[in-house]
Design brief:
Elements: E1 2-3, H1 18-44, E2 49-53, H2 54-61, H3 65-72, E3 81-85
């Protein structure tokens, strides 16, 4: 289970390969979209335990389910979605 606020780890590529640099840039772009989406949804929902599936997140973000899975799996989430606990220490 992930605690709120959700943070999606980013990839840091500092090499010279432009293809790898673009892959890292795209990964980080998708990570930011997922992170912002989840944190907004969690904040709007009063429930302490919340579940979000990649299949529902992807269309809302204009992404494929595989793209969402790829970045969200790094958040200690499952293959189908993520369960989030909205902690009592809510950020302002």
């Amino acid at each position: 289970m992930v605690n709120y606020p959700v943070y999606v780890p980013r990839k840091h590529y500092k090499g010279r390969n432009p293809r790898e640099r673009e892959k890292a840039r795209r990964y980080n772009e998708v990570a930011k979209l997922c992170e912002d989406y989840l944190n907004k949804k969690i904040l709007e929902n009063p429930e302490e335990i919340q579940q979000y599936t990649y299949g529902f997140m992807a269309p809302d973000l204009g992404l494929t389910t595989d793209e969402v899975l790829k970045v969200m799996f790094a958040v200690d989430a499952g293959h189908n979605g993520v369960t989030v606990r909205k902690s009592l220490n809510k950020p302002e």
